[in-house]
Amino acid sequence: MNYLEEPSNSFIRDEKDKKIKDFEKSIPLIGIPWDWSTAGKPGARFAPQSIRNELYSLRTDVYELNEIKFGFNDLGNVRISPGDLNETSRRIISVCDDVFKKIKEKNPVIFLGGDHSITKSILLSLSKFYNKIGLIIFDAHYDLREVKEGLTSGSWLNELLKDNKEKFNVIEIGISNYSNPSYMKEIAKKYGIKVFYRDQIIDDLKDVFYEINKVKENTDGIYISIDMDHLDQSFAPGVNSPTALGMYPHETIKIINEITRNSKILGIDTTEVSPPYDINNNTSRLAAKLLLYSINSYLGNKNG
Predict the structure, then answer these.
(1) Taking a C-beta distance cutoff of 8 angstroms, is the pair 273, 228 a contact?
(2) Is 61 annotated as a binding residue?
(3) What is the 3-state secondary structure (H, E, C) of 155-173?
(4) Element (H, E) at 227
(5) For 62-81, what is each residue's pLDDT tens digit?
(6) 141 among annotated binding-site residues
(7) Which one, 33, 103, 238, 272, has least CB within 10 Å?
(8) Mind telling me which Pfam families this protein's record contains (predicted)?
(9) DSSP string, 109-142
């Protein structure tokens, strides 16, 4: 008898135990291992593979949602140019142009960052295909910095909206007290960004839901950007800028369920996971589950 088998970390031999990696590959997924814009803790370049490992080990059973037996059409990683932001941005846009062109009106595209600056390049591509995009960001920070020197992932939203304000309707959720320069409030007002501080959503989500549904009504579709540092550092320790008194994952899930209800989701990204600073892969695993909740909630609502 042949007692050899494929290498695996599992010693449970259950042929009916299907994981995400075993299902039909239908959801486009792209990794973007860029973190040279990080001014704090580098390491997000390692996140795409770390999140993939967790994502593909998960299963499809979920409470009170239609079970979507899907897999991910993993297109690989964008070949970034280490240290060269302009060339890397050009490559991200080129890859996204090709993908959005092919899958328009079909499933949303999933992006695994990378620091949060990758979202700017993705959206510059996406904006070529739609007149108005609803951009809903989970983040502890405004990302509206105005820097004189150096690179920072904390300026990407300001850079995007400077020349493309009319293309986006933006909501930021989870902004943290004592974590942002105060001048950014005025920049947010200038761009018409609806901002919800972490403390505003502790007791009641109705104002958040109201703004989300206004965005859904007045745009061609929604892009969701999940910066993992919007979550409390006890849940997401492995990020560039850990957040004390941040959001809880189930608050995020409730909001995601509202975003995906009766909407058109164009894309979803997760950013700022830094595996070298993580504990037992907690943050990568949580990022993977939030992505699954997002896409499962969307497809479950759409097909239910």
Answers:
(1) yes
(2) no
(3) HHHHHHHHHHHHHEEEEEE
(4) strand 222-227
(5) 887 888 788 899 999 999 99
(6) yes
(7) 103
(8) Arginase
(9) EEEEESSTTHHHHHHHHHTTT-S-EEEEEE-SS-
**Tokens matching residue 203:** 């007791």
Question: Domain segments of the chain: what residues?
Answer: 20-303
The answer to whether 227 is a known ligand-binding residue is: yes
The bridge status of strand 222-227 relative to strand 133-138 is parallel
**Is 116 assigned a ligand-binding role in the annotation?**
yes
Neighbours of 93 (CB within 10 A): 19
Residue 30 has what DSSP assignment?
E
Interatomic CA distance for residues 162 and 235, integer angstroms: 34
| Alpha carbon distance 179, 94 (integer Å) | 34
- Asked if residue 190 has pLDDT above 60, the reply is yes
Axis-axis angle for helices 118-126, 85-103 (nearest 10) = 40
pLDDT at 104 over 70: no
Residue 13 token pair: 């031999």
Q: List Cα–Cα distances, 249 to 15, 102, 193, 288, in angstroms.
A: 32, 33, 23, 12
Q: What is the pLDDT of residue 303?
A: 52
CB 65 within 8 A of CB 147: no
The residue with greater pLDDT, 14 or 230, is 230
Phi first, then psi, for residue 136 (nearest 5°) are -115, 120
pLDDT in tens, 236-285: 999 999 999 999 999 999 999 999 999 999 999 999 999 999 999 999 99
Do the annotations mark residue 139 as ligand-binding? yes
Radius of gyration (C-alpha) of the chain in whole angstroms: 19
74 known ligand binder: no
pLDDT tens per residue, range 116-148: 999 999 999 999 999 999 999 999 999 999 988
20-303 maps to which CATH number?
3.40.800.10
**Using CA atoms, how far apart are residues 248 and 123, in angstroms rounded to an integer?**
27
